[in-house]
Amino acid sequence: MGRSVLVTGGSRGIGLAIATAFKEAGDEVAVTYNTSPPPEGFLGVKCDITDQEQVDAAFDTIAEQQGPVEVLVANAGITRDTLLLRMSDDDWDSVIQTNLTGSFRVARRAAKGMLRLRKGRIVFISSVVGLLGSPGQVNYAASKSGLIGMARSIARELGSRGITANVVAPGFVETDMTAVLPEETQKQYLSQIPLGRFGRTEEIAKAVRWLSSEEAGYITGAVIPVDGGIGMGN
Ligand SMILES: NC(=O)c1ccc[n+]([C@@H]2O[C@H](COP(=O)([O-])OP(=O)(O)OC[C@H]3O[C@@H](n4cnc5c(N)ncnc54)[C@H](OP(=O)(O)O)[C@@H]3O)[C@@H](O)[C@H]2O)c1
C-alpha cells in the first residue's frame, strides 16, 4: 500500500500532473476539484476549498477510503488579473480566499491527522510571481508570497513531529491558466526565461514528488523554483 496523498485542484493542469506522478509511484491519490472531476483512477472528491465544511467533509471521505492524508499538495489556485487601480475588493478577496486562505484551511486540517501519524509532507504550490512581483497581479502575487511565510511557520511548528512543509515555485507553465494570457505577454515572459521555453506540468510534478519522498526527508521550509531560471537569485 502506498501513502494517502491529497492534491487540491488536481483535476487538470499542474494538479493533475502531480496526482499522476504520485499514482505512478504507487501511492493512493485523492483529488479535490471544484467544477471539473478528475479522470478515472483517482479518488475524486468535490470540494470548494473556500468552504470549511466542504474541506472537513472531503478529509473525512479521504480518511475512510484511503486512510488519513500523509502527503498534502495545496495546489488549487486562481487568478483575477487587473491593474492595481482597477482591482476591486472582489478581485482581491476571491484570489486571497482561494489561494491563501484555502491553502491554510487544507493544511490546518491535514496537520491534525499528520500529528497523530507523527509524520507528513505538505507542499504548497506558489509561483515565481510571489517572489518577483508582476504588474496586474497584486492579488495573486500577495497570495503566493503568503504561502512562503505560511510554509516556513508550519515547518518551525511541526518539524519536531516529523512533518515537513515546503514550497514549489513554478515559472510559466503551459496550462489553462496561462493559455488565456495575451500572446504579447507570453512572448515577453519567454524572452526572460534562460532555458528559452515554458515549463511542462510534469516538470513541476517531479519536483513535488521528490520533495515528498524519503530522499527529501531533511528538507523543510524550502522554496524550490521550477521556472527555467526566470526567478534566478530569488
Ligand atoms: N500555470 C502556470 O504557469 C503556473 C505558474 C505558477 C504557479 N501556478 C500555480 O499552480 C497551481 C495550478 O495551476 P494550473 O495552471 O494548473 O491552474 P488551472 O489549470 O487553472 O487549474 C486550477 C485548479 O484549481 C482548482 N480550483 C480553483 N478554485 C478552486 C476552489 N475554490 N476550490 C477547489 N479547487 C479549486 C480547479 O478546479 P476546477 O477544475 O474544478 O475548477 C483546477 O483543478 C495554481 O495554484 C497556480 O497558481 C501555475
TrEMBL record:
It comes from Kribbella kalugense. Residues 3-176 form the Ketoreductase domain. It catalyses: a (3R)-hydroxyacyl-[ACP] + NADP(+) = a 3-oxoacyl-[ACP] + NADPH + H(+). This is 3-oxoacyl-[acyl-carrier-protein] reductase. Homotetramer. Catalyzes the NADPH-dependent reduction of beta-ketoacyl-ACP substrates to beta-hydroxyacyl-ACP products, the first reductive step in the elongation cycle of fatty acid biosynthesis. CDD domains: BKR_SDR_c. NADP(+) binds at residues 9-12, 75, 140-144. Keywords: Fatty acid biosynthesis, Fatty acid metabolism, Lipid biosynthesis, Lipid metabolism, NADP, Oxidoreductase. Gene3D superfamilies: NAD(P)-binding Rossmann-like Domain.
